[in-house]
Amino acid sequence: MNDSFINALNTQTMTSHWMDGIGENMMNCYTPGYRENKVNFKTYMGGVAPDSVYKSTSQGKSTPGTSDENVYLEGKGFFVIRDSAGKIAYTRLGEFKFDGEGVYKTSDGKRVQGYILNDKGEIMQGTKPMDADIFTEATINGGSVQIPTTDIKLWIDPGNGKYLGKYDEFKIEGDGIVYGKAENGKVKTPLYKIAIMNFHNPAELFEIKPLQFIETEESGKPVCSTGEVRGGLIELSNSGLGKNINTYKMAQTQWNITQKLLQSNKQLLQQAMELMSS
Asked: b vs e for 101-117, b when ≥16 Cβ sit within 10 Å of the residue's Cβ?
């Protein structure tokens, strides 16, 4: 009787955590960039317990952003961002904008990372351009390429109000390249490529704050990603309301069953105590 009581109590506690996770999913079905909570379960002598709680890595749909400076990542991977202390984090939410000084940032002030390009569009590794075939091969194979990222900065010249002193405007193309434009579009120069990283086990990234993650031993080190970047869009939540409502109903049914089991065990215990005292 004690075993069944403990099993029911453990299962109810687990179910409560499960329902909390589902509730968070439902509340964030319309939060851009949100990653859905997923739970795996294991069984043991005392009932069931969460085996792992992780973030879903499935793709969210695209939607028009609030600015042409926003970006959407289609495929696997994460944008790379850096805080004021130099610490790196990763996010799927590309709701980025250039600030008043021309620095590309997240809404909370972290600096978006990229690679410096030469005028041929080649990634610069120090003072030398990196071989495009090597970078492409590493990206396709999920390999690690040791190229330092940098802040994406289109400094605005206070003298003429132009980006980097000579570009009238900029444009982010589908390959994640930031171009500077001048002379009514006749001049188009590649400046930066937005950095995209993936992980061998991205579900095990640790969420340090909503929609921002850091690597863990379980996630592995960042590797090159094949994700495609599109300008003017952002990613919606990958959590569906209908699916989570059905899952919540399952969890609620499990809760009700364990509640009845607990009540039955209490009644049996009470009857046993009465028999012993009579």
From this structure: eebbbbeeebbbbbbbb
- Burial bucket for residue 70 (CB in 10 Å: 0-12, 13-18, 19+): buried
Contacts for 142 with CB less than 8 Å, ≥ 6 apart: 198, 200, 223, 224, 225
CB atoms within 10 A of CB 27: 12
What element of type H or E holds 64?
strand 62-64
- The reply to whether 72 and 41 lie within a common domain is no
Q: Which is nearest to 109 in space by CA: 118, 117, 99?
A: 99
Residues 86, 47 share a domain: no
Domain match, 124 and 92 both: yes
Mean pLDDT of all residues in 235-261: 77
Asked whether residue 142 falls in the same domain as residue 246, the answer is no
- Indicate if 50 and 169 belong to the same structural domain: no
**Domain enclosing residue 90, as ranges:** 62-235
- DSSP letter at 145? -
Instruction: Round to the nearest angstrom and report the end-to-end CA distance of the chain.
Output: 21
Residues pairing with 71 in the sheet: 231
Unique residue bearing structure tokens 């379960």: 41
Q: What is the pTM of this model?
A: 0.74
14-70 pLDDT per residue, tens? 777 777 888 888 888 888 888 888 776 554 444 555 555 677 878 899 999 999 999
38 close to 55: Cβ distance less than 8 angstroms: yes
Tell me the per-residue pLDDT of 202-225, one tens digit each, with 9 for 90 and over. 988 999 998 999 999 999 988 887
